[in-house]
Amino acid sequence: MMLSGTQTPSVPTSGLRTLPAQVREIVGSVLGIPPDRARGDAALVADLGATSLDFVELVMAAEDVFGVEISDAESDRLVTVDDLVALIDRRRGA
């Protein structure tokens, strides 16, 4: 998913060992919140206030950091932080 003129935020994930920790760092960076607020069961919109632009930035950052491709249909089904973790895990295993 690429949008012209949209810049993927710089996400510091080096030194983070687990996929969930890396995803929490990405979510925190994109949404401007502390990563520990991005619990696995936190709803991206209802709990963390993500907008449609935030979703685009989250997907772009995940694609860049993890070297995966996430379709629009897949990103449309993301509800929680855990959903994003599971999707990245599946895409990396594919």
Structural category: mainly alpha
List unreliable stretches of 5+ residues. Answer: 1-6
> Overall pLDDT, averaged?
87
Q: Largest sheet, described in full?
A: none
**Number of H/I helices:** 4
The shape, in one word, is: globular
Summarize the amount of helix as a percent range.
Answer: 40-55%
Task: Tell me how many strands there are.
Answer: 0
CA-based gyration radius: 12 Å
Order of helices and strands: HHHH
| Content of β-strand | under 5%
Q: What's the N-to-C terminus distance?
A: 18 Å
Walkthrough of the structure:
The chain has 94 residues and is mostly helical. 49% of the residues lie in helices and 0% in strands. The protein has helices at 19-31, 52-66, 72-76, 81-93. The radius of gyration is 12 Å and the shape is globular. The protein has four helices and no strands. The model is unreliable at 1-6 (pLDDT under 50). Helix 1 (19-31) crosses helix 4 (81-93).
Key words describing this protein structure:
mainly alpha, globular
What's this model, at a glance?
With 94 residues, the chain is mostly helical.
